[in-house]
Amino acid sequence: MAALLEFLPLLIFFVVYKMQDIFWATGALMAATLLQLLITYFMHKKIEKKQWIFFAMVVAFGALTLAFRDKTFIMWKPTAVYALFAIVLLGSLIMKKPIMEQMMGEVVSLPHAVWVRITAAWGLFFIGAAIANVYVAHHMSEDDWVNFKVFWMTGFSMGFMILTIAYLYRYLPQDEVKPADTAKDDN
């Protein structure tokens, strides 16, 4: 349910875009993001800071898109989000406090150096995502950009998450499996 809720605004944006146009899709994205916040609040009685930031960016870029009837604003929103994530991640490294360790360190115990590498890798991933979004937004069609944002970037993100988990796996504590004592005498 949480994964569906996470992608709900993006899915609604895509469906409305295919049925109407980017301006209707932008309005739907804004409404869906608000709905996502409300559902999250009713389910958990709190809304995380990152969700408020994402909502604010959707509303700001969406409002500019609709007010000026200029799709450039909504097409730049992912770049702004990716750049913000990169700044936070890489900035936390400059301050020698990897934010991923701060966020997940209580759940997963890993060496500090691993948290640094993972934080740096995700920071670089988001820089690459921001650059890719700018390129596609300015050098390809609107339809290509929508497909890139919905499918390709979602796929790249999931793929990078899988690579991260695979990398982390070797650092996770392995449960020691003790073989059953089969040398007992039946005498």
TrEMBL record:
It is a multi-pass membrane protein. Belongs to the YciB family. The gene is yciB. Plays a role in cell envelope biogenesis, maintenance of cell envelope integrity and membrane homeostasis. Keywords: Cell inner membrane, Cell membrane, Membrane, Transmembrane, Transmembrane helix. Its main location: membrane. Signal peptide: none annotated. The chain crosses the membrane at residues 22-43, 52-68, 74-94, 114-138, 150-169. HAMAP family: YciB. The keyword Transmembrane helix applies. This is Inner membrane-spanning protein YciB. NCBIfam families: ispZ, PRK00259.1-2.
